[in-house]
Amino acid sequence: MALFSFRRDNTARVLPDAGSDASRAAMEAFLQGYSIEVMPRTAEKVDDFRPLLPAGTRVYIAHIEGTPIEDMVATAARLRAEGYEPMPHFPARIIPDRATLTDWIARYKGEAGVKQALLLGGGVATPAGDFDSSMAMIETGAFDGFERLHVAGHPEGNRDIDRDGGDAIVMQALKWKQDFASRTDAKMAIATQFCFDAGPVIDWVNRINAAGVSIPVHIGIAGPAKLQTLIKFAIACGVGPSLKVLQKRALDVTKLLLPYEPTEVLQALAGHKAANPDFGIESVHFFPLGGIKTNATWAIENGGSSAVPAANT
């Protein structure tokens, strides 16, 4: 089956067959330096990450409301000891005040050598205290000195922010972050919600670039998992147009009981990147919804077994 890449003028370009050497090379290049996400309770189920993840892999640590900071820091310290780069989440709306924020940062730095962070609004409707957005946390200066700061992106929109289904408020926030990126010494990237269809992703990246937002994108991809699991998470997380990919698969009896794998969406994105080297996606970020071991094994088998390149640390 031929894959198609779309140029900026929306004309189609046929990409190499998915089984070709060129397609495999594109996939391997695209997965180079991928990142993955864990939570303290999921990390505890892994005896040793070293047989699973390339040395130096960036590992996000998701902070769900109610998780003790001690568990978060211990997970970061463990990952550091095993040779990985921990990147904890800082969800603005669950942090009660600046004192708590600075305490968390001090613990991460002192006990786990953390120097990278993902800043996001957080998935609760009402802020617990002083912060309602990643921008509010950035403005405190508490993250000055960090080597890398990532912020959230939503290729299919975020109705919690733009309730009309558009993206005006989100776009305004991205432009603010672009301005901040030009002033900070920290490397920045946009880490996105997971998607299942390359088309909306390509359109979104081209659109934010055209609007003047040139922060590199680390595209969120759901790892291999049961179809029912992915549909549940997709609905809960507000994934929009690309949810249709899962729904269509659910209607195919021959595929209903087979685990979903992100091969097709990644091949399409990898092919587009190979055909358009300046395309704004810099890296892949995996959400291991079907388990860390399952996701890591899939990545190894599909060319993602190389360590994080020095230029992308």
Molecular structure report:
With 313 residues, this protein is an alpha/beta fold. Helix content is 38%, strand content 18%. The chain has twelve helices and ten strands. The chain has helices at 21-31, 40-43, 69-81, 98-112, 134-138, 168-181, 198-210, 227-236, 243-250, 253-256, 263-275, 292-301, and strands at residues 3-6, 12-15, 35-38, 58-61, 85-91, 116-120, 148-153, 187-195, 217-222, 281-287. The strands form two sheets. It has an eight-stranded parallel β-barrel with strand order 3-4-5-6-7-8-9-10, surrounded by five helices. A two-stranded antiparallel ribbon has the order 1-2. The longest helix has 15 residues, at 98-112. The chain is globular and about 55 Å long. It starts with a strand and ends in a 12-residue tail after the last helix. Mean pLDDT is 86; it is low at 1-16 and 306-311. It comes from Szabonella alba. One of its GO terms (molecular function) is oxidoreductase activity.
